[in-house]
Structure formats: C-alpha cells, structure tokens
C-alpha cells in the first residue's frame, strides 16, 4: 500500500488563519522583522500540523508538546524551540480574541529552559579606546564616530540607530527621540561627546554623503541611502578589529555596556528600564546578574578566605 504524500504546504484553512494573524500584527504596529520571524515560525508549524491532520481549532496542548518534541529530536536548540512556542502562543491568543478558539492551547505548554547567558560587556576604557580611535577625517569616519557615540551614549539598538532622522536629535535639550520596538517612542538623554560627534558629522560628513536633499535619515551610506542594521554591524566589526578588541563586539554589546555602566554608577533599574525601552522590568534585571557575577569574581580574587 502506497503512503500518501506528505503536504509541503499548509492547508488553505491554515493559510487563512496565518493571514488573519499577520493582519493583526500590522494593525498593532509590530516591526517588519518581527512579522517576518513570526510568519516563518508559524508557517513551519502549520505545514507540520497539516501533515499530521490538525487544523487550528483542533490543536491541543498535547499536539504542541508533540511538535516541541519533534523539534528537539531534529536537533533544534532550546532557545529556538522556546521562540517558536512563543510565536504559537501569540498566534493562538489572537485566534481566541477573534472568537475562533475557546482557550489558548499554548498557555498550557512550558517552554524549554533556556541556558543563562550573560551579555558581553565592555569595560569603560575599552569603549573609550574604541570610540576615540575612530578618526574624524572622511565622511564615513565622521558618520561612524557619530553612530557609535550615539549607540553607547543612549543605549540604542541597531534598528533604533538606523531609524534616527536628523530631526530626532534635540541639541538644545540634549536628547534623542527614539522609535523603539512596536513603534513606541521614547525620549532619551544624549551626552556631550556624542552631540559633538553628531555636529561634526552633520557639518562635514552628511552633506557629502547625501544624494537626495529630501532624505530625512540621520545616518547615510556612501550612496546616500539610510543605513541598514547589517551596515551597522559590519562597520563595528571593522573598527573593533582595527582597535584590537577581542570577543565579538556587537551593537548590542554597546547597549549592554551602556546599561551596566549606568548600574555601576548608581542608576536604579527602573531608570535603566525606561532608558532602554524595556516593556518589563524583568528584561532589565539581567544587568543585576551581570553586576552580581562581577562582584563574585572580585570577591574570589580579593578575599583571603574566599
């Protein structure tokens, strides 16, 4: 007896449900990257469920546990499985809000425990060495110096950096208007060093790079377009390699360093939460683990009976 072919695509019913969810994400102002990642994860599950004979209303916690087990057997990392389950939790929540489900089956499925990983944090002198070694001769050097001064001075994500417009910088108030996750706007302070670097870039760098007078983006590529996040990561790799910093410095490492140095200087977690644009204080609490780990290391190195 021949086995029936395994569907390579979700069923029409699944596609309709996924399109409903995608429309809901757009209505809520979710970032394009978030929508793309959700779409990929959910389409993978929808294809699996179609092959297993389950439409969306028939999915139970047991079905989701089977799916998680299949991902684990396929060699997916716990962080990947947890991300995919989070996407499913959000998807079924939307279905329930639209009256298509009596309850969210993903609420009863535990995510695998993620390994605790402390973020990379640069020492203050390492940050200074990185920033001070970026010259201010060419338009691209002026741009890079302004870009990474802003990243560290205000704790910006790479996506927030590239979304800055010229009008986002408030020189008189010494602050930035930042478009964060979910199109949420926050106002953050920016230091004198960063503002000086931005001023030099606006005077001597950006006019050379700009090809379209109507372009609002603050940070421009050599072709005059708005930078991408991959451009930010690539340029940071160039400078960290030239300076000789080891360990893979990313834009997020500058953000982590910003928060940790504030904590070291006496800032409280609530203030840091607002500056970083975290929706929940629990996200910000990772920095207390960074500080705790640093103190334990100092204790072990210094105490005679440690």
UniProtKB/TrEMBL annotation:
GO terms for molecular function: DNA binding; tyrosine-based site-specific recombinase activity. It comes from the Bacteria. Pfam families: Phage_int_SAM_1, Phage_integrase. Residues 117-300 form the Tyr recombinase domain. The keyword Oxidoreductase does not apply. Keywords: Cell cycle, Cell division, Chromosome partition, Cytoplasm, DNA integration, DNA recombination, DNA-binding. One of its GO terms (cellular component) is cytoplasm. PROSITE patterns: CB, TYR_RECOMBINASE. Residues 5-96 form the Core-binding (CB) domain. The active site is at residues 157, 181, 252, 255, 278, 287. Belongs to the 'phage' integrase family. XerC subfamily. This is Tyrosine recombinase XerC. It comes from Capillimicrobium parvum.
């Amino acid at each position: 007896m021949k086995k029936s072919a395994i569907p390579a695509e979700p069923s029409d019913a699944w596609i309709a449900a996924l399109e409903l969810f995608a429309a809901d994400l757009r209505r809520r102002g979710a970032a394009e990257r978030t929508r793309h990642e959700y779409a990929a994860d959910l389409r993978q599950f929808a294809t699996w469920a179609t092959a297993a004979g389950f439409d969306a209303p028939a999915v139970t916690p047991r079905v989701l546990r089977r799916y998680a087990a299949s991902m684990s057997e396929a060699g997916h990392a716990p962080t990947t499985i947890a991300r995919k389950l989070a996407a499913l939790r959000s998807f079924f929540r939307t279905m329930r809000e639209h009256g298509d489900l009596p309850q969210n089956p993903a609420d009863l499925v535990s995510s695998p425990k993620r390994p605790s990983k402390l973020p990379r944090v640069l020492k203050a002198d390492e940050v200074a060495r990185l920033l001070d070694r970026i010259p201010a001769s060419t338009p691209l050097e002026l741009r890079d110096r302004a870009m990474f001064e802003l990243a560290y001075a205000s704790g910006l994500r790479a996506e927030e950096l590239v979304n800055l417009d010229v009008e986002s910088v408030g020189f008189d108030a010494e602050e930035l208007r930042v478009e964060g996750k979910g199109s949420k706007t926050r106002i953050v302070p920016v230091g004198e060093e960063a503002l000086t670097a931005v001023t030099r870039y606006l005077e001597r760098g950006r006019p050379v790079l700009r090809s379209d007078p109507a372009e609002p983006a603050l940070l421009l590529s050599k072709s005059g377009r708005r930078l991408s996040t991959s451009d930010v990561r690539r340029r940071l790799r160039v400078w960290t390699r030239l300076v000789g910093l080891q360990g893979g410095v990313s834009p997020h490492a500058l953000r982590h360093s910003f928060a940790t140095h504030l904590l070291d200087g006496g800032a409280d977690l609530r203030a840091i939460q607002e500056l970083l644009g975290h929706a929940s204080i629990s996200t910000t609490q990772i920095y207390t683990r960074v500080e705790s780990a640093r103190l334990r290391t100092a204790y072990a190195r210094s105490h005679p009976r440690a």
